[in-house]
Amino acid sequence: MAVYALVDCNNFYVSCERAFNPALEGKPVIVMSNNDGCAVARSAEAKAIGVGMGEPAFKLRHLVDSHGLIMLSSNYALYGDMSERVMSVLATFSPGAEIYSIDECFLDLDGMPVDNLTAWSQQVRATVRRWTGIPVSVGIGTTKTLAKLANRLAKKSKKANGVLDLSRDARWIEAALKQTPVGDVWGIGRQYAALCGVNGIRTAFDLTLQPDGWIKKTMGAVGLRTVMELRGTPVHTLDTAPSDKHTTCCSRSFGASVTEFEQVHDAVMTFASRAAEKIRGEGLVSGAVQVFAYTDRFRPDQPQFSLNSMIRLSPPTSSTPHIIGAALKGLKSAWRDGYEYKKAGVIMLDLVRPEDIPRDLFSPPPESGARPTALMAAVDGINGKMGKGAVGFGLVPDDAPWKMRCSNRTPSFTTSWDDIPVVKA
DNA sequence: TCTGGGGTCCTAGGACCC
DNA sequence: TCTGGGGTCCTAGGACCC
């Protein structure tokens, strides 16, 4: 029988910040999205004073004075590094581990020589906490969806103390399903939750009682798989070797909206350059680049416009100048004056390993464009040694108006020599 | 003044072919 | 009079996830 654990870090970004700044313990703390736009992680104390997930930062400023809310800019270098540490600890507990997101990991517990999974899970929690400083919760179930559901309840219940094992007792599973609002099920988002509500389906348990035909019709094949998993039939297996990405994207909202072509041009050039670095880092080449830019959707009083353009890359490449050239060509062809642009981005499509490029009689040999050139290798090498942006193509001024706002970022404690904390005697 | 970024999968519909 | 149908490929859009 399949048994899965889902280990999920509590309030992960806030917990990372607390690991290096214990003064944040016990206080309402949030971490904001890029551009300091909205709350993406909240401490328990912040949730308690009513801070919602995704709530815009400007609506929260008053809580700084009234409740001592601490609002931090996001520090992805720190979170990425802390995530690797947590995952490497978890890997010591089970040979089968799937890193599902920056703060979640599925473990395969099938055939583990453990008779008390709750006690074992408490040991996992204690070890991760001691070795990394990050608090985690553990949910266990016979399907991934049930493990997710167990994890959510493990976090909510004081009695559970961070661990809930739903793998043994059918009555517990039923009780858990009845306690879970249908919208909190993994795979049931806003739209499907609303559809369920209209049809009188309130809990996960209600959902398991619906006929397959109705589920398939209203929530598609994906929805049906979710319900099968809720009923205890495993559909999703552990994926320990994630396959290569098919697309990758580099996009940002601008710190301030811009109207001039030159500004959007510079932003697109920067994003294209980063996107190229990213795919080289994963050993991939791209067969097409898509560029987009659009106006501020939160300003209905302003004229709205969205531009979008795709340029094929033949042969597929990861070379920065080729990719920048294509992205700018796309931007030029779709550009329209007279709008306040608020966001732009570059998407790399049709990613493949160079050796897997489909070839025909007329394809040039792969060496001529598919592999990173010596120049690209040198650029990446220098940036690896000297720091990001030491050398590059089309570098733009730091004070460009479209650049991100980020007023309250903590140091990169674990990934930058200059930022390593110093212990004072 | 101020609302994130990066992914996946599925489905419907159109173009095209025989 | 009678006006096919099945397959494939591609794209756009919509749902979901963290």
From TrEMBL:
Enzyme category, top tier: transferase
Checking Pfam families in the record gives: DUF4113 (PF13438), IMS (PF00817), IMS_C (PF11799)
- Which is one GO molecular function term here? DNA-directed DNA polymerase activity
Keyword match DNA damage: yes
Residue ranges of every copy of the UmuC domain listed in the record = 4-189
* Gene3D superfamilies the UniProt entry points to: 3.30.70.270, 3.40.1170.60
Enzyme Commission code(s) on record = 2.7.7.7
One GO CC term on file: cytosol
List the catalysed reactions: DNA(n) + a 2'-deoxyribonucleoside 5'-triphosphate = DNA(n+1) + diphosphate
Protein family membership: Belongs to the DNA polymerase type-Y family.
Q: What does this protein do, in the record's words?
A: Poorly processive, error-prone DNA polymerase involved in untargeted mutagenesis. Copies undamaged DNA at stalled replication forks, which arise in vivo from mismatched or misaligned primer ends. These misaligned primers can be extended by PolIV. Exhibits no 3'-5' exonuclease (proofreading) activity. May be involved in translesional synthesis, in conjunction with the beta clamp from PolIII.
Identify this protein by name: DNA-directed DNA polymerase
- Organism, per UniProt? Paramagnetospirillum magneticum (strain ATCC 700264 / AMB-1) (Magnetospirillum magneticum)
